[in-house]
Specification:
By secondary structure, the chain is an alpha+beta fold. It contains six helices and nine strands, in the order βααβααββααβββββ. The strands form three sheets. The protein has a four-stranded mixed beta sheet. Strands 3-4-5 form a three-stranded antiparallel beta sheet. It has a two-stranded antiparallel sheet with strand order 7-8. β7 and β8 form a beta hairpin. α3 crosses α5. The two termini are about 25 Å apart.
């Protein structure tokens, strides 16, 4: 683990490696998830250019005037698609809102698909026409990499490697672009995003423009996590626990 807070694994060793390399990846992944709940992954198959392009489109969206961004906040969708205003969301144990705003993009299926009623349409942004297109492309790339990771997790749990495949096929995952704007007045809480657990199977996180992500280890210590270039951080969610 060297001086890193979390270990970094090479996903290509699992997707393209020898049997020995696959087994070693599974063992290291399982150990990291049991002891820390987090792992860094390189050679994950998600294009850095796609990540950069989506990041640029996200930055352009969040730079829009507040009233324009709020036109993409669809109350009846409860934030599952489109924009959520600054200071709206808070962790379940906290009464103080997080100091962030975000935009969510979700699963897409054909109009005649039986699951279509469960999947609202994604929200197009007229002022930034590439935003949704790039977001859907990134969503698909994350689905592929996440599927490979879940295969490795299934093997670690002594399940068939395809155990999770049926559960995640056309699954109701979310791609979230988060922005932490400058603080212009004294907040009720100095915490950008309150401590929390994710409710899902796994979360894939790409690098941000600044640090701040931390994990709470088994010794009850907060440890910083800073993804390096071309690295994705994966953490365990409640469903997998």
């Amino acid at each position: 683990m060297s001086n890193r807070t979390i270990p970094v694994l090479d996903l290509s060793k699992f997707t393209e490696g020898t049997t020995r390399q696959k087994n070693a990846f599974v063992k290291k992944l399982g150990n990291a998830f049991h002891t820390l709940g987090f792992v860094g992954v390189k050679n994950h198959g998600v294009s850095q250019q796609l990540i950069d392009d989506f990041y640029a489109a996200s930055k352009a969206f969040f730079a829009l005037p507040t009233q324009v961004k709020r036109s993409y906040e669809i109350k009846e969708l409860a934030g599952q698609r489109g924009y959520t205003s600054f200071g709206t969301e808070h962790a379940k144990q906290s009464k103080v809102a997080d100091l962030k705003e975000f935009f969510q993009i979700g699963q897409t299926v054909p109009a005649d698909h039986p699951l279509k009623p469960q999947y609202p349409d994604n929200i197009e942004v007229a002022e930034e026409t590439n935003f949704l297109r790039l977001g859907v492309e990134l969503y698909r790339a994350f689905e592929k990499s996440g599927g490979s990771l879940l295969e490795a997790i299934a093997i670690h749990l002594d399940l068939d490697k395809a155990y999770f495949t049926a559960h995640i096929d056309e699954g109701n995952s979310i791609l979230r672009a988060i922005h932490y704007p400058p603080i212009l007045e004294e907040p009720k809480s100095a915490i950008r995003a309150e401590q929390h657990e994710d409710i899902n199977l796994i979360t894939l996180l790409v690098g941000a423009s600044a640090g701040g992500l931390q994990l709470l280890n088994m010794q009850d210590e907060w440890m910083p996590i800073t993804p390096e270039e071309d690295e994705i951080v994966i953490n365990v969610g409640d469903m997998l626990q």
